[in-house]
């Protein structure tokens, strides 16, 4: 199968996308975060620290989602709260343009909790498509929608904070 859902203890459920040969992508629902991306040769392309891989702490490594703020550029915790929340699989995403190169994908969604709205009083839907192409290419497509009932605008910052695996940190 190109898509596999794996239940794991301690909030570590994940989705695995598989491509041809040995390429794959693992996505943790906690944080909506890619934590592994392997090429056709099974080589890991992302770094994940062995020190922080248990909720409620964010994963250190992979591709964390920084939202609704990046760094300390606001009043929230560093990089916002999206990387510390449980995302859901989005079974009814709005359509995206068809890309025949995509072989497997999963759509995730994050909506604010009551606690989130107390810290950051803006209603939103954050939709994230994570896709694996035929050649092992990885793409992440974000769509953030204002769902405030009064139409009140809000500002935010956002980033994919990618940790690539490198042979020499220098």
From TrEMBL:
What Pfam families does the record point to?
Answer: Aldose_epim (PF01263)
GO biological process: what's one of them?
carbohydrate metabolic process
Signal sequence residues:
none
A molecular function GO annotation: glucose-6-phosphate 1-epimerase activity
Cellular component terms (Gene Ontology): cytoplasm
**Name of the protein described by the UniProt record:** Glucose-6-phosphate 1-epimerase
């Amino acid at each position: 199968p190109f898509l596999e859902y794996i239940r794991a203890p301690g909030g570590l459920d994940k989705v695995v996308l598989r491509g041809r040969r040995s390429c794959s992508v693992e996505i943790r629902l906690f944080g909506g975060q890619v934590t592994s991306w392997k090429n056709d040769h099974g080589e890991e392309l992302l770094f994940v620290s062995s020190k922080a891989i248990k909720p409620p702490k964010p994963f250190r490594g992979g591709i964390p989602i920084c939202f609704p703020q990046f760094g300390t550029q606001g009043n929230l915790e560093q990089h916002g709260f999206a990387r510390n929340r449980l995302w859901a699989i989005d079974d009814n995403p709005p359509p995206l343009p068809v890309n025949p190169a995509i072989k497997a994908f999963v759509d995730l969604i994050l909506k604010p909790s009551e606690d989130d709205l107390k810290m950051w009083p803006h209603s939103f839907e954050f939709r994230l498509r994570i896709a694996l192409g035929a050649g092992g290419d990885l793409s992440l497509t974000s769509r953030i929608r204002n769902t405030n009932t009064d139409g009140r605008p809000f500002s935010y910052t956002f980033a994919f904070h990618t940790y690539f695996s490198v042979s020499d940190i220098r």
